[in-house]
Amino acid sequence: MPTQSKRTTAIIILTILTVVWGTTFSIVQNAFSEITPILFAAIRFVLSLCIFLSISRDSRNGIRLLFSPKNTTEKFFRKQALIIGTALGVGYILQFAGLVTTTTSKSAFLTSTTVIWTPIFSKIIGHETFSFQKVFAVTLAIIGIVFLMHPYPVEKIVIGDVLTLACAFSFGIYILWLDKIHKVANDVSGGEHASVMMISAMQLFIGLICILIVMPFAETSHLQVTGNTVFAILYTTIFATALSTFIQVMYQKEVTPTSAVLIYTLEPVVAAFIGYLWLSEKLTTMEFAGAMIIIGSMIIGQINFSYKMKKGSS
Q1: What pLDDT sits at residue 154?
Q2: Are 18 and 222 in contact (CB under 8 A)?
Q3: How far is 234 from 229, CA to CA, in rounded Å?
């Protein structure tokens, strides 16, 4: 398949994935009255990891490699997997911990600043070069996010705001390193599908360890088993964790980190429209304009998206 065709396919599939993520907001919000957030994340990671381990020998090989790498290449692969797994797990922890003291709208806004940090981090390590198109698309996305979520007027900064901003940093590192890990993963596994399964299982395992370490200190966990809770766990496990992990690992490598993060800014747009259509939530003119600006920034960021990547980059 030609490179451009792969890229187009990746854009379409990552957009669909982001729509799925957007559907989880209301489901998760309802579940948090019956289960504590970090326990919820832990269960999602455990069940998703079990899915990968039960269906894929390559996933099981990935977990074994975390404990007993046999050569320099496998040790380097483990190091890269530790970075993305830790970034993923810490990102979830910081986001949920931040929600304890900050508002949902401010949390969504600060998490969306990943669209700023990802290209900055990518530029710092020399992975990606800036162009007017990228800067313009990212700027539009920021404006759209502000209009959609309007976290102003600025209130007193609380610890939750700081934690959520750190969450955005962590997710930015995750998106960037996920783009970097594939070459060494292919060298270790010998094939694209095998490397995707290994990366998926390894990052879930490492992220789960991070969550389990922090959970006793971050919350007094409780779970009330109801139909609503079971549905939320199963839906987010299957579609928003297991399937989305595979899709993100499989297809994000076909686009640049900046291109990917622009696609992911559609998540709050989808959540806003779902709230408007099915939850009787109001969408103001400014919020609607913000949603349209975000969609426009994503499109601008993909059309004829020319970039220079250093040798060895995707």
Answers
A1: 58
A2: no
A3: 9
Farthest-apart Cα atoms in the chain, separation: 59
Nearest Cα neighbor of 125 from 83, 91, 160, 92 is 83
| Residue boundaries of the structural domains of the chain | 3-302
Residue 236, pLDDT score: 93
Give me the pLDDT at residue 40, please: 93
Q: Does residue 164 contact residue 108 with C-beta atoms inside 8 Å?
A: no
d(CA 290, CA 144): 4
**CA 99 – CA 105 distance, rounded (Å):** 10
pLDDT > 90? residue 133: no
Whether the per-residue pLDDT at 165 is higher than 50: the answer is yes
Distance of CA 256 to the CA centre of its chain: 15
Give per-residue pLDDT as tens, 221-256.
999 999 999 999 999 999 999 999 999 999 999 988
Per-residue pLDDT tens over the stretch 190-210: 888 999 999 999 999 999 999
Among 254, 314, 274, 267, smallest CA distance to 294 is for: 267
Contact yes or no for 164/98 (Cβ under 8 A): yes
Torsion angles phi and psi, residue 130, rounded to 5: -80, 150
For residue 233, what are the contacts with CB-CB under 8 A and spacing of at least 6?
Answer: 31, 35, 40, 43, 44, 47
Query: Is the confidence at residue 311, as pLDDT, over 50?
Result: no
d(CA 53, CA 127): 32
Whether cis (ω within 30° of 0) applies to the bond prior to 69 is no
Residue by residue, DSSP assigns 185-249 as HHHHHSSHHHHHHHHHHHHHHHHHHHHHHHHHHH----B---HHHHHHHHHHHIIIIIHHHHHHH
Predicted local distance difference test score (pLDDT) of residue 153: 60
User: Rounded to whole angstroms, what are the CA distances from 99 to 116, 131, 223, 228?
Assistant: 21, 35, 18, 21
Q: Which two tokens stand for residue 162?
A: 């700081």
Block residue for tokens 């986001």: 95
